[in-house]
């Protein structure tokens, strides 16, 4: 086969293979409109293009390397293949973070423009006399335009994403793409080195294993009153309500302060058939008055207010009741330190469960029999 055709074919196969794998992990389909917009299309195009170009370059490079029997380090091919592999790996990981709701749509394409533009500029400096390296004002202008374009895109989408908040971004994506289960997103911590063994529906809802645990706690200690701070989509609420349903008694009061998130949670709870044991409030946990004695407190609202929240509800806790504090791994220091501080003050006793996001199980010391 003609060498050029062979190179093009290898590049094309790489493009198709990467595109297929990326569409599959993003649960997108070329024949279905849901989940697509211009930015997501650009995001899946970028790694496929880099993979295609890198494989094509590699195919062009192999015959020479085999013929001469060595790989020259300072060569346009070696640099191109190495840069292609590094850029591809980076974009692929960024794509995974997008799927895990940690990055906005469009960021992969923006980063691709910056990295590809910067590499092409670097080539003109590192190989000033190489005949295959385009140079001159047009090349410089195109590379600068790519870097600038990527920078502007990121400068637009990132602040908007941060302002919107992760919770609203998840809600938007859920409405577009529906629910799905994927691997846990948090990085390894000393106490939980293999977070990939856990699963999640999204980065805000409790991990699936924690949801099962919550239900077991409810069926084990038979609470009359549960308070959950931070309803989000109601996964924790519904699991604990399932436990109450099995027990045959008990009530859960769940509190969510974001009105848009609350509306979605309410819709899900109303449709669940478990609504009769759930009372929902669209308020802040720091303002909601709870009547009666709390048997289980599941503290799962904003990380920064957990300590205040626990101090607020502590006097109402049944002495043998359980305080469960989510997101208390060493990855979320603010919550872990708050739990340990409350323990040092002699207010509660804590057990730190080594789960990916961490979970504290605590009991107040006062009045414990
Ligand atoms: C980690 S999510 C809750 C996940 C949920 N408990 C579950 O098990 O799936 C945190 C939620 O707390 C809400 N939130 C933040 N601050 C709050 C506050 N002061 N009062 C009530 N909800 C709050 C956020 O809007 C978000 O929906």
Description:
The protein is an alpha/beta fold and 369 residues long. The chain folds into 2 domains: 162 residues, no CATH class; 165 residues, Vaccinia Virus protein VP39 (Rossmann fold), CATH 3.40.50.150. The protein is 54% helix and 12% strand. It is built from 11 helices and 9 strands. The protein has a 7-stranded mixed beta sheet, with helices on both faces. Helix 8 links the parallel strand 3 and strand 4. The longest helix has 31 residues. The mean pLDDT is 94. The structure holds S-adenosylmethionine. The site of S-adenosylmethionine has 22 residues, from strand 3 and helix 8.
Summed up:
This protein is of the alpha/beta class.
Index terms:
two-stranded antiparallel sheet; alpha/beta; about 375 residues; 9 strands; single chain; Rossmann fold; 2 domains
């Amino acid at each position: 086969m003609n060498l050029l055709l062979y190179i093009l074919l290898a590049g094309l196969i790489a493009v198709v293979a990467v595109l297929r794998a990326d569409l599959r992990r993003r649960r997108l389909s070329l024949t279905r409109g849901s989940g697509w917009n211009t930015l997501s299309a650009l995001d899946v195009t970028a790694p496929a293009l880099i993979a295609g170009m890198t494989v094509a370059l590699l195919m062009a490079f192999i015959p020479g390397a085999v013929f001469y029997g060595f790989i020259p380090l300072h060569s346009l091919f070696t640099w191109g293949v190495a840069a292609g592999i590094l850029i591809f790996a980076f974009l692929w990981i960024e794509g995974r973070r997008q799927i895990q709701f940690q990055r906005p749509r469009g960021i992969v394409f923006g980063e691709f423009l910056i990295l590809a533009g910067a590499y092409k500029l670097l080539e003109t400096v590192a190989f000033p006399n190489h005949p295959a390296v385009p140079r001159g004002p047009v090349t410089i202008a195109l590379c600068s335009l790519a870097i600038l374009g990527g920078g502007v895109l990121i400068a637009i989408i990132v602040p908007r994403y941060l302002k919107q908040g992760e919770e609203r971004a998840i809600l938007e994506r859920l409405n577009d793409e529906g629910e799905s289960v994927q691997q846990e997103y948090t990085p390894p911590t000393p106490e939980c080195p293999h977070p990939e063994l856990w699963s999640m529906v999204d980065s805000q809802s409790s991990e699936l294993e924690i949801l099962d645990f919550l239900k077991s706690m409810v069926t084990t200690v038979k609470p009359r009153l549960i308070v959950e701070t931070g309803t989000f989509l109601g996964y924790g609420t519904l699991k604990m309500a399932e436990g109450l349903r099995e027990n045959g008694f008990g009530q859960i009061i769940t509190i969510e302060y974001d009105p848009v998130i609350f509306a979605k949670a309410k819709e899900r709870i109303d449709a669940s058939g478990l609504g009769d044991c759930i009372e929902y409030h669209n308020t802040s946990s720091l303002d909601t008055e709870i009547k009666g004695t709390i048997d289980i407190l599941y503290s799962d609202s904003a990380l920064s207010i957990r300590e205040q929240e626990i101090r607020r509800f502590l006097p109402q806790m049944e002495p043998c009741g359980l305080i469960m504090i989510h997101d208390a791994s060493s990855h979320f220091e603010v919550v872990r330190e708050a739990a340990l501080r409350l323990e040092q003050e002699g207010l509660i006793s804590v057990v730190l469960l080594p789960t990916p996001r961490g979970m504290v199980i605590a009991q107040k010391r006062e009045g414990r029999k």
